[in-house]
Structure formats: C-alpha cells, structure tokens
Write a structure and sequence with these properties.
- It is a single chain.
- By secondary structure, the chain is α/β, with parallel strands linked by helices.
- Helices cover 21% and strands 25% of the residues.
- Strands 2-1-15 form a 3-stranded mixed β-sheet, covered by helices on one side. The chain has a 3-stranded mixed β-sheet with strand order 3-4-5, with helices on one face. Strands 6-7-8 form a 3-stranded mixed β-sheet, with helices on one face.
- The chain starts with a strand and ends with a strand.
Length: 253
C-alpha cells in the first residue's frame, strides 16, 4: 500500500532534455496538462502527492524515479548514469530526508537509475543498462541484502531501463514485453504479455487499487482488466518523446 508519492513539474527546459526517440520534440503545454492528469490519478489512487517545483537547469528532472530507490523502511539515493542528470539527486536528497531516517547512497564510479530497479515483494531486480553500470548494480545489491531483501542483477539487451519492459502488479503477476517475455529470471511469475505493437504499455504502475496505464493500448488494457485490475488511462505522448514512461514520473512509497 503506497501512502506517498513525489512528482516534479516539467520545466520550460524539458523540451531540450535527453532522448533516444525519433518521435519529435515534446510540446511543453501539452506535457504540463498530461502531468497534471497524472497527479490527479495518483490522488485518486489514495496517495498524498508531494509536488516539487520545476528546475530549469535540469531538463529531465521531472523523471524523479531515477533519483532514488524507496522501500517502507529505507531509501537509497541513486547516482544517475547521465552526467547532466547527476545534480538532480542533490535537489531530491532533502525531500527524501523529510520522509526517511535510514538513507544509503550509490557512490561513483558506480551509476544507477531508479528506472532500472524493480521490486517484487522482498526481491529486487537490478538492471544493468546504458545508465546503470555493474558497480552501481552491485552496490545496490549489497545494500538491499544487508536489509534482508534478495537482489538479482539482470543484464539488459535492448530496453532503455529495466522497467521499460516489465511491471509488477502484485499477486505474483507481472506485465512483460520484449526480452523479458521468456527471460529465465521471471519465469516463476504469472505473466501478462504485451504484444510487440503495444510494447510501450509494459511500463504501467500499480498504485493501490488501480493500475495506471498509458492510453492507446487497448489489448494490454483488456488483459490487465481481465486479470482483475481496475485501470486508469493517461495520455503519455509528450513523455514518451523523451524516453519517459509512467513509472518515471513519480517516486511511490
């Protein structure tokens, strides 16, 4: 059960942030509207939303998930793999400290993005990607294991972040796409398989009684509904243009 969420308003510099997509430049006004809808969805799910103001010097900082890994009892401040994003953790640190007493840190040369971390009950799956390196992954594995959790490191082959292609919905059920459909680390779970043409929808988020999913992916929505989950659809077009998904836009704890 999530009680709190943290989000950050997109800045006017958002349109010049990092991206690997070829979907065109985001429209800031539309992104701001979509972000407000996202906030309202988090409130509907029953969370107290902490809304941080925009920061022009960090174009990508609306993607707050990459700055930390949060659990019920401790937090880990990450060390984002993109150099231009590293300063975001200094903005986030005092916010995290207002909620947590026990805080760990990923230290350089280790790098780690929160988007590469998937928690399934007491098990953390830690993706090695273009943004999370082996050193950072090993540091997090040691941290979570010291706190009584399990940690497994997963090498990504194609996805940008681990959670780009996999989501945990609870009840040992995962939403999977692409390289994770038949990945041996995830074969013990019940799978909702996302078809290739709807791959973006694999990044959805379970927040208490709802699963928030991107709009425009009817097959995935139907599968999630058929599995017994209520859904909230949100237009994510302006965040997809910057490699962002639903999980990227909030820290949930």
């Amino acid at each position: 059960m999530f009680k709190n969420t943290i989000v950050k308003i997109p800045s006017v510099s958002y349109i010049s942030g990092l991206t690997t997509s070829d979907l065109g430049s985001p429209i800031l006004e539309k992104a701001l509207v979509q972000h407000q809808v996202y906030i309202e969805a988090l409130k509907k799910c029953g969370t107290e939303v902490t809304i941080l103001p925009s920061t022009i010097e960090f174009p990508d900082s609306t993607f707050v998930e990459d700055t930390a890994v949060l659990t019920p009892t401790f937090a880990v401040i990450s060390n984002p793999g993109a150099l231009s994003r590293n300063g975001e953790i200094h903005e986030m640190e005092p916010v995290i400290k207002s909620f947590y007493e026990t805080i760990y840190y990923i230290k350089g040369p280790g790098t780690l993005d929160g988007g590469d971390i998937l928690q399934i009950e007491d098990h953390f799956y830690i993706g090695i990607s273009a943004r999370t390196n082996p050193d950072g992954a090993k540091q997090l594995k040691q941290i979570v294991e010291s706190e009584g959790y399990k940690g497994t490191i997963v090498q990504l082959e194609k996805f940008f972040h681990l959670k780009t292609g996999i989501t945990y919905l609870g009840n040992q059920t995962i939403v999977v796409a692409g390289e994770f459909i038949d990945h041996p680390e995830f074969n013990s779970y019940q799978k909702i398989v996302v078809p290739p043409e709807e791959e973006y929808a694999a990044n959805c988020i379970r927040v208490n009684d709802y699963v928030i999913i991107p709009s425009g992916y009817p097959l995935t929505k139907q599968k999630v509904n058929d599995a017994g989950y209520k859904t909230i659809e949100i237009d994510m077009s302006e965040f997809r243009k910057q490699d962002g998904g639903l999980s990227c836009l909030s820290l949930r704890f």
